[in-house]
């Protein structure tokens, strides 16, 4: 299937390290439709409007099959579906979406469980310190492999109530699923699918057993709360529990890896900001918000479709068409943000699209924010004279979940 030059530029790995000039080109025409490709929306107010428009569906079953022929491989896949499970709620529309999200949110945060994330602060800090302690007597690290990957998956394990002795198995499954989102072009595709499917089966079997264990003997973890949870429409089915737990693992892990890694890269490129954070840890809160605007972990949402014809910015997008919302482009829109290409942790009025908006706004945002704040504060405080070994670093192939695959850092030790 043929696609136009701008779409090819977005998905071209050669542009992964710096896609922002392409986004600036896109914004000259808020809605771009090239040849038989998707409708690409790149400006802040248009993206914001569509994220809040009930006529926009997240359910792939509403996509016209003739519009579904998008670039193959995982470069534009945020998450592959497990054929053995129903779609996670982020890929559903109301009322199914609302029922499942409400059941998932009840044990996760406000207003029902307002202190669950806050109560994890001490444990999150201990995990961060243990990982950084492992850098002792080393003059260099790969931030991704040594820190950004293991930290969030350990947090998800603790949140779900995975026994400590089983955490290494969980890490292995998470690594395999992450690799499926960032395929090595030299790896045999059939073998990758086989290994990925095997990991999905093993993870599904493990989670299924853990769910039954929590039915018999509930704890104070989130999985126990999800198993026991009931709303006006009842509770989650067993398969819905599995897909929600898998969503927490994959979505909660992948985005936080990129948020922390992109954040450290920005700090190392802006040593004055790194020094300010080291001296004033409270700056972590606005700093993370600016990171979510300046270089968000989720660059675009490629799985949206109108339920009826929609007019936006003078363009009619037909029912069933494929729509891409380029969040990272909207975050750099000069019609919304002053001097948008400048990294400014003191920025005010920072209503970014880093976690989306509307009914599908990021379910795990409170946890991701806290993880990034604690991680970047501790790294700034404890790494002695950290320097980039290469700039730009090697990036993952995925255009949706964009971040460095490795971030080699030289340091003089630990503080």
How would you explain this protein's 3D organization?
The chain has 415 residues and is an alpha+beta fold. It has a single domain (5-410), classed as Cytochrome P450 (Cytochrome p450, Orthogonal Bundle). Helices cover 46% and strands 7% of the residues. The chain contains 16 helices and ten strands. It has helices at residues 5-11, 20-27, 44-51, 96-105, 116-119, 121-133, 143-148, 150-160, 167-181, 189-216, 222-228, 238-269, 271-279, 284-294, 327-330, 365-382; strands spanning 31-33, 39-41, 56-57, 140-142, 301-306, 310-312, 315-317, 323-325, 387-388, 408-410. The strands form three sheets. A five-stranded mixed sheet has the order 1-2-8-5-3, covered by helices on one side. Strands 4-10-9 form a three-stranded antiparallel sheet. Strands 6-7 form a two-stranded antiparallel sheet. Strand 1 and strand 2 (39-41) form a beta hairpin. The longest helix is centred in the middle third of the chain and has 32 residues, at 238-269. It is globular, with a radius of gyration of 21 Å. The termini are far apart.
The gist of it:
It comes from Streptomyces himastatinicus ATCC 53653. By secondary structure, the protein is an alpha+beta fold. The protein is built from 16 helices and 10 strands.
Per-chain topology:
Elements: H1 5-11, H2 20-27, E1 31-33, E2 39-41, H3 44-51, E3 56-57, H4 96-105, H5 116-119, H6 121-133, E4 140-142, H7 143-148, H8 150-160, H9 167-181, H10 189-216, H11 222-228, H12 238-269, H13 271-279, H14 284-294, E5 301-306, E6 310-312, E7 315-317, E8 323-325, H15 327-330, H16 365-382, E9 387-388, E10 408-410
């Amino acid at each position: 299937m043929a696609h136009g030059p701008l779409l090819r530029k977005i998905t071209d790995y050669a542009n992964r390290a710096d896609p922002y000039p392409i986004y600036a080109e896109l914004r000259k025409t808020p809605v771009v439709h090239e040849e038989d490709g998707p409708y690409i929306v790149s400006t802040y107010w248009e993206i914001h409007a569509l994220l809040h428009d009930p006529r926009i569906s997240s359910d792939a079953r509403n996509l016209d099959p003739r519009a579904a022929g998008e670039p193959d491989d995982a470069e534009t896949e945020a998450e592959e579906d497990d054929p053995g499970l129903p779609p996670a709620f982020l890929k559903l529309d109301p009322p199914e979406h609302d029922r499942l999200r409400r059941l998932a949110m009840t044990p996760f945060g406000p207003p029902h469980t307002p202190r669950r994330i806050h109560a994890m602060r001490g444990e999150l800090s201990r995990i961060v310190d243990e990982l950084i302690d492992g850098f002792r007597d080393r003059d260099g690290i790969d931030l991704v492999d040594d820190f950004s990957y293991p930290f969030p998956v350990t947090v998800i394990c603790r949140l779900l109530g995975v026994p400590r002795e089983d955490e290494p198995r969980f890490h292995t499954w998470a690594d395999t699923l992450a690799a499926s989102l960032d395929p090595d072009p030299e790896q045999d595709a059939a073998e990758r699918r086989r290994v990925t499917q095997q990991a999905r089966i093993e993870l599904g079997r493990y989670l299924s057993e853990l769910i039954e264990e929590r039915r018999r003997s509930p704890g104070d973890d989130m999985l126990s709360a999800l198993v026991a949870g009931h709303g006006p429409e009842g509770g989650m089915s067993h398969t819905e529990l599995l897909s929600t737990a898998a969503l927490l693992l994959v979505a909660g892990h992948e985005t936080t890896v990129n948020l922390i890694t992109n954040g450290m890269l920005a700090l190392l490129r802006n040593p004055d900001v790194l020094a300010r954070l080291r001296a004033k840890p409270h700056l972590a809160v606005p700093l993370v918000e600016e990171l979510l605007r300046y270089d968000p972990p989720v660059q675009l949402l490629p799985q949206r479709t109108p339920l009826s014809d929609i007019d936006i910015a003078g363009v009619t997008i037909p029912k069933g068409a494929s729509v891409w919302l380029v969040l990272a482009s909207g975050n750099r829109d000069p019609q919304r943000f002053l001097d948008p290409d400048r990294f400014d942790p003191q920025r005010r009025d920072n209503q970014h699209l880093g976690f989306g908006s509307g009914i599908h706004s990021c379910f795990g945002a409170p946890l991701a924010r806290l993880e990034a704040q604690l991680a970047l504060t501790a790294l700034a405080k404890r790494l002695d004279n950290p320097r980039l070994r290469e700039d730009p670093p090697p990036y993952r192939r995925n255009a949706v979940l964009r971040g460095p695959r490795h971030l080699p850092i030289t340091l003089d030790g630990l503080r």
